[in-house]
Every structure is written in C-alpha cells, then in structure tokens.
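User: Hello! My lab partner asked me to get a predicted holo structure for this protein. The small molecule is adenosine-5'-triphosphate, SMILES included with the sequence. Please write out the structure tokens.
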Amino acid sequence: MANTPASVEDVATGLKQVGYLPGESTALVSYLATQLGKPVLVEGPAGVGKTELAKALSKYLGRKLVRLQCYEGLDEAKALYEWNYRKQLLRIQTESDGTGWEAVQDDIFGEEFLLQRPLMTAIASADPVVLLIDEIDKTDQEFEAMLLELLSDFQISIPELGRIDARTQPVVLLTSNNTRELTEALKRRCLYLWLDYPDLEHELQIVQLHSPELGEDIARKLVEIVHMVRELDLKKPPSIAESIDWARALLLLGADDINANTFKKTMSVIVKHRTDLDTVATRVGVKLEPQATDARPAA
Ligand SMILES: Nc1ncnc2c1ncn2[C@@H]1O[C@H](COP(=O)(O)OP(=O)(O)OP(=O)(O)O)[C@@H](O)[C@H]1O
Ligand SMILES: [Mg+2]
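Assistant: Hello! Below are the structure tokens for the protein in complex with adenosine-5'-triphosphate.
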C-alpha cells in the first residue's frame, strides 16, 4: 500500500516501524525528498546505514525499490537502456525477402526491442518507485553528467526513438563513501544528508532493535566499548554494522558480560586490520582486565 507522509514525525515513526531508527536530520531530509521531489545525496563512512535507508524508505512508502549498484566503468548500456541485439537480429532474419529496410528498421527500433536498465525502469514504472543509486563515487564524471540530465528533467533521449518522459517520479537516493569528490553540479541538484556514527543512546537502540534478546547491560557495555574503539586512530573504525554483528556473536556464544577474555576472543568481529587489532588490544583490552588492586583484600 502506498504511503504519503504528512510530516517529519510521520516519516520518523514510519521508518521505525520498518526497522530503521532515523536520526533527526535523516527523518527531515527524507520527508523533504518525498515532498520536493528532489534526489538526496547520502554521504558518510562505511556501514552507517546509507543503503539501508533507501530500503527502509521503499518499505515504508510502499514503493518498489529499484537499485543501481555503481562500479568503475559502469556505462549507459548497463544503467539506462540497451537495444536487444539478438532479438533485433532474429526479427530481421524472419523477415521475408523483398521487405524494404525502411519497414524493418521502424520495427526493430521500437520499445519492444529495448532492454530497460534500472534508471529507465525507475522512470518508466507505472507506480512510483524508490530509486537507489548506490556508491555513485565509484563511477566516473561522464556518468555523473549523464545522470544529471536524468535527475533534473526526468526524461531520457533515445536517438532512434525520441524523448521518453517519466511516467512517474521516483524518490531518488544516491549514496557515496566519499572516495572522490562529486561535482558541484550534482550536489546542487540534490538535498544533502551526512550520516555519521550515531551517539551512544541512538546506537544502543539500533543494536537492541537488531538483537532484542541481548541483555540491556551487556548491550550498553558493547556500545560503550565500540565508541571507545572509534576514538582511537584506526585504519577502519567499527561501524554500526560491526556493532550489530558483535551483538549477534555475543548472543551466539552465550556471553553475559564483556570481560577482557571475551573481548580478546571476539574483537576481530569489530576490528579488521592486523595493526588495528594490536592497537585495540593494548588500548582497550587492558581496560577490561580486572584491576590488580581490586583483588587485594582491603588493608
Ligand atoms: N538507523 C538505523 N536503524 C537500523 N539499522 C541500521 C541503522 N543504521 C544502520 N543500520 C544497520 O547497519 C547495517 C549497515 O548499514 P548499510 O549497509 O546501510 O551501511 P552503508 O552506509 O550502506 O555502508 P557501505 O558504505 O559499506 O555500503 C545494516 O545491517 C543496517 O540494518
Ligand atoms: Mg551501502
């Protein structure tokens, strides 16, 4: 069932209901996107919920999710549309001799011979969709330029067919891990959302949502440790994704506290670089050791 939010609170509640706990600016920008029809550029470190936001919005709005996963070398043929050469060839072969080229040509460059790729699917859909253009920073600038045209006019020009206008307007989310600076032209056309690591209480709620069986005390300790680890100067600080994995791992192992021993055994769930492991073991691991002074009977 399609949903049209009436307020920012509506969006916040709706996203929660489908399992995504938005921060204030996330709910606000998502609401504006549905009202203004502008694409949203979501940037931030890995594993903070950029992709998941698009999935959650699609569930909440009751719209299909169309996803374009970007990579180096992605081109129009894979993103927009492509002619179905095999079908065209077959069509030409089945034509009886004597039919003029003109007649065949008109036929084989019709919509029936077009293969729709995600961007075209999104604007040609009869029901409005959520379009996720994931990891746009992996593509090159020419691709970005092509995208701009689509995002500002919501139309596609196909030389053999002419202009194809959008049947419906999608809610568009572009995500980026910031591996390269995106062009000003693209940023100008988008609303901007910066997703960062959440604060302690927010992250605790997210972890509890994903692992409700984990006790409150241990969940809180987990998040506190993750925050401590993020303070260190690491190659790759743990993200929300790692906190969630760690909670699941601790549950599976039946841990009811995170002491030095449990931490040592499981810290590779949240830290994934050899050098980071050493840093974390010495800086955080030792803090969890029972203090020698505690063990001594009071004098
Ligand atoms: N606000 C949130 N509420 C609920 N779950 C969340 C939230 N933020 C992140 N998560 C969870 O964290 C995990 C990672 O999220 P996601 O895959 O969207 O990260 P990402 O930012 O797209 O990372 P990458 O840049 O590596 O693709 C997912 O399992 C997602 O469910
Ligand atoms: Mg992602």
